[in-house]
Amino acid sequence: MIKKIETEYLKYFWPMRHYLITCGELPRANIIAVSFCMPVSNHPPMLACAIGQHMHSAELLQQTGEFVVNVPAPGLRRQVYYCGYHSGRDVDKFKETGLTPLPARQVSAPIIAECVAHVECRVEQRAPAGDKWLFIARVLDAYADEDLETGLCELELSLGEFPQKVYGGRFTGKAS
Ligand SMILES: Cc1cc2nc3c(=O)[nH]c(=O)nc-3n(C[C@H](O)[C@H](O)[C@H](O)COP(=O)(O)O)c2cc1C
Fold first, then answer.
1. If you take atom 10 of ligand 1, which residue's CA is the nearest one?
2. Which of 21, 56, 125, 156 is the most buried (most CB within 10 A)?
3. Which one of 55, 56, 59, 87 would you pick to mutate in the ligand 1 pocket, going by the greatest count of ligand atoms within 8 A of its CB?
4. Rounded to two decimals, what is the model's pTM?
5. Superfamily of domain 16-156
6. Pocket of ligand 1 (CB under 6 A)
7. Where are the domains of the chain?
8. Which contacts qualify for 145-154: CB closer than 8 Å, 24 or more apart?
């Protein structure tokens, strides 16, 4: 019989995509790097994303109930990691990364011009999920760069090896 051993299970979810979620409103809009984001319903179109309960973005989402999932173009790795390691409580991430905010079509949060696809969402439910809030949201609009749609531009599926530093060490094999 094959022997089964304990594992850091998250590595089996790798590669994950990385998204830049915009929330809040200009001039105080914020950007957070998020991997825990997935479609959950086709009819109506809905998605869910898990955001740390103490993060600035969770506070903004609670206040406005609106956000945009921006899909980064290849080559935005530095900006993704900046937004994933700094809090909007301390810095203006648009200013620090040089990313450009543009008005969204239906929500108050801006889109990021340098990203190649944008999914505008309105929060319908917020559920506690461990150290995160799970925001379950209706998709109000979705659009992408023509080059992406026609295949001239391709997305990066992941940014290298399983990033143990970001996700690792969360599960030691014993449920608590
Ligand atoms: C690649 C990457 C993916 C991340 N994914 C998530 C995620 O899915 N959920 C989350 O709460 N934080 C995630 N983070 C961490 C947040 O982006 C980070 O804590 C950020 O500084 C919070 O910013 P804020 O305080 O401005 O909201 C990720 C970070 C990186 C680098």
1. 51
2. 21
3. 55
4. 0.91
5. Electron Transport, Fmn-binding Protein; Chain A (2.30.110.10)
6. 18, 30, 32-36, 50-52, 55-57, 80-81, 84-89, 132, 166
7. 16-156
8. 145/116, 145/117, 147/116, 148/116, 148/117, 153/73, 153/74, 153/116, 154/74
